[in-house]
Structure formats: structure tokens, C-alpha cells
Amino acid sequence: MRQVAVCGPRECSDVEARWARMVGRLLAEAGVTVLCGGGGGVMAAVADGASGAGGLVIGVRPDTERGAVCAGLSAVLFTGMGEARNAILVASADAVIIIGGSWGTLSELALARHRGGIPVVSLGGWQLLDADGTPLDATISATDPADAVARALGAGS
Amino acid sequence: MRQVAVCGPRECSDVEARWARMVGRLLAEAGVTVLCGGGGGVMAAVADGASGAGGLVIGVRPDTERGAVCAGLSAVLFTGMGEARNAILVASADAVIIIGGSWGTLSELALARHRGGIPVVSLGGWQLLDADGTPLDATISATDPADAVARALGAGS
Amino acid sequence: MRQVAVCGPRECSDVEARWARMVGRLLAEAGVTVLCGGGGGVMAAVADGASGAGGLVIGVRPDTERGAVCAGLSAVLFTGMGEARNAILVASADAVIIIGGSWGTLSELALARHRGGIPVVSLGGWQLLDADGTPLDATISATDPADAVARALGAGS
Amino acid sequence: MRQVAVCGPRECSDVEARWARMVGRLLAEAGVTVLCGGGGGVMAAVADGASGAGGLVIGVRPDTERGAVCAGLSAVLFTGMGEARNAILVASADAVIIIGGSWGTLSELALARHRGGIPVVSLGGWQLLDADGTPLDATISATDPADAVARALGAGS
User: Rounded mean pLDDT of A82-97?
Assistant: First the structure.
């Protein structure tokens, strides 16, 4: 296990930002590289948490705007490919942690489940029902950042 | 209004295939170009319906496998970009019609809502709740193929 | 043989535009679908020639700007992926015809040769030497539009 | 100046591998992050040189094959987008160094010149002539690895 993508909205609540910062710190302390979208909100918070703990953080941007990049990144890929970059984040990760909900975040959750074979863990965020109204097991639901990281790294209870 | 993307799973129910075929036919009869994923299930059914009515159908494939392409396509783009092709379908459409549910289909719904500014209409498929369990208005829910096409073309009741 | 990509610069000479228009017309008359970048210069000229002869022309755009699209296209894919769209054009074609030279056009030539297995024909355009100064057989050099189309369709003399 | 892409063929000569290893080492010693394709040949050599000097090296792969990755990478992006990944490498770099020649490498040179505004430096590799046979100033030609790095970093003589 070497690379975990942490996905979440550009505009997030204070609780989500706190979760993201802690998830970043715990991943860095576990020696895991963090992949994120390199923007604001959850992306900036996880980069802050991981870099503050000395971890490696790679931002994968949708655009090529140097000014739109959050602090705390070790390196930045400017894809210039819009939301298609979400597919790269998901394809590159050994696990995905979803924090909060937005349309972009939902696309990452969906792409991660489409790929299959990796843990997709969530802290908060949206829920899914199938056509009959039955809840879908879209993600492994975590109770707090430590639980999310443990489950992403395959040591979940 | 010129191009409508019709998205749905590779493995679909008979009802979904019937809906997709009829949606394809109605779009073709309205002089609208159909964009689809060019594979099986809903993709094959919409291509069949639209081409049978003399319409233009463009398939946008995730791979470069010539043998994986469904019948009825006027032209095929082989992106070789995996599920990132979903972003192209959505970015190219003046409206999106979702038929049925799957992880790939959900990513298209999410990317379409992330883009914003275009109708995203659904026939069947999955439902979304926010973190509090409140239903999200993810799509314009249609009652049948004619209603779906009318709403996609901006003439919905 | 069903789809031929015609690649060339946005700003081209009158001769290149004439060549492109004629290539488009001949491809359409042969029942072949034309793929192009959907912009100005060679792209606009080939679309004009092919559509004038009743052919199918698919434009694959780097951006999502509806206003930047040339006339004569049957359908347009808005990739929003910048020059990565060149890879899609090349991957989708059964043959590539290069008209004139530019950096974008050169990337298409290079991607087509990297892919291999398809004819890459040129009318005018740049030449390549290896590190020792020996000319590289980068493309099949055509003498005029009819020759270019014949060689692309595998009927070259 | 923070990120330099080093591009070159998967199958390279011993001289090219030596050049790439030295370029990687010099970039790392200058505190610059190396971006590369993460595969064999020049890609493996530059990763080896940079990582041996304690530098950060990011590999950007065309596929999602974990086994195809070279040693020495700090992080790997698995784009699953084929040669479209070349556009990402070039868009992410503050300068590009080309070592040797191949069709994939040529596409990176062409995409870098298409982008414009950044130094594109070469060590060996192919040459370009325009339609009249006049040499094109495709790249800044360097005499050795130290010269290539100096010119990429804007301190060229």
C-alpha cells in the first residue's frame, strides 16, 4: 500500500476540513503518499495535514492554472483535462477515501467503484439507493479519521 | 439543441433496453444526434433505436478494441482513455439522458451535474441522499421515453 | 477502411487549404468518414470539402468552446482535454493524412507513427532527420490530394 | 522553477542512458522535481539518477500496469490514457529536456513547442526541417548533461 487518494469538495464544512487534515496527517505518519485534486476545501486540508507531518502529497489538477494550486503539495500534475483528471486520481490509488459530498466527489466515488478491487472508504458524504429504494453499499463507512485510514490501509476492524 | 448523450449500463434489464431503443428512435426523429458509449446494454439499444430511425449516432469508446463496438454507430471515437471518456460524452452533450444504474453511469450523472447548465434526465436508475438523508434532486425524473426526450429537449411538461 | 483523420495547422497556406478541401471531397466520395480537429485552417477546409460532397465529418475539439467550431461538421466531440485530443484522433483513425506543418500537427504525426500499423500519408509538411542527419521515413509522401487519398485507402501506386 | 520533464525513448543507447542518469542527478542536486514517463530506457535512467541523489521523481504512466513501472519513483500516476499522458507531462513541466529520439519522444517535443513559453532542451535526438528543407529551431541543443540542465533552468550560457 503506497498511494491513497483523498477526495472531497472544494467547498467543505469545518468538520470536513478537520477530518481531511487528520486523514492527511495519519496517512503521512503511516508512510503513505497522498494523492489529491490540489485545490481548495478538502483537497487543501488533506495536503496541509499530510505535508505538516512530513508526508509526500501529489496534486492532480484539472486545469493548467498555476495560481489555483493549494499549499503543501510535493509535486503537481497539471492535466489540463478537466474532470477527466478524477479518473487518473482513482486509477493511481491503492485506496480511496471520500470526505463529504459534491458532484465532482461523487464522480470519484463512482469511478473508484467502477474500477473495483480497492477499498473505497467514506467519512460523511452522500448516500445511494438503487431503483427500488434499497441502500447501496457504495463505500465502507468510517466513523472518524483514524477509522477511515485504518480501513483504507486494510487494517479496519 | 443538437447532441444528446444517452448513458446507461453495459448490462441492463429488458425494460431498460426497450426504453433506450425508444429514446434513440425519438431523438433521431427529432433530428438530434445521439452520443453514447458505443458498447453493450443501454449503449447498444440506443444506437439500434436511433440508427433504425435514420439518425446519427456517435460512439465514444473507453478502449481501442475494434471488436467491442456495438452495431448502429455512424462513427466511433476510440479514446483509449478508460472511463475518462465519460467526461468527453458529458462535455459534448447539450443534454444527458440516464437510463438505469451502474457505477460507470453514476460517474456520468455526477460529471453532468458537476458541469451544470444542461438538463440531466433519468429513466429509472439510482437515487441520491445527502449526508442528512434528504433526497437530492440529482436528475429530472422522467416517466417514460417520450417524457425523457421532451424534457431533454427542453419541451418537458 | 471507414475513418480517416486529416490533420493540419489552424493557420495554413492557400495551397494547403485547397489540398485539404480536395482531400475531404475525395474521402467523402469514397464513402469514408473524416475525422478532424474541428477548428480553422486545414481542419475547416477538409470539413468544408467533405461536407460539400455529402460526407460525414466528426470534429474532435481540444476545448469546450462552442464558438470555436468550424462549419461542415456532422458531430462535434468537445473533449476539454487540450492537445491530448490529438491522441484520440489518431487512435480512432484507420489512416492519417497530414497536410502542412505545425507543432500540433507534428504531434499527431508522431502519435500516429507511435501507434503504428496504419498508413500515415503527408502532403507537404515538415521533414525529419535522425541524430546522424539521415532522413527518416516519417510518412508516405503524396504528390497531390488524389494520391494522398489513394495511399491512405491502401490503393496507392 | 520546480518541475522539469525529462523525455526519451524506452529503448535507448548506453550514451543516452548515461546522459539521462546525469541529468537526473543534476536536477535533483538543484532541488528540482523530475517528471518522467516512469518506464524503461531514458525514463528509468533519469529516475535512477535523480533518486540516487535524493531527488523527487514522479512517473506518469500511459497504462495502469503496476509491473511496468521503473525503480526510483517517489510517486506514480497511472493515467490509463495511453500516449495522451505525454500531454500531461509537458503541461506540468517548467522546462522539458529531450534525450534521444523516438515517435513518443517526438510527440512530447511537439506538444512542448505547441504549448510554448518554456525551454525545450535536447541532448541528441532527431532534427526537423520545414517544407523547404530549412532546419527548424525545434529545441535548444545542449552539448552535455550539465549544459542541458543549465539551459532548462534558465542559466544557459
Answer: 98
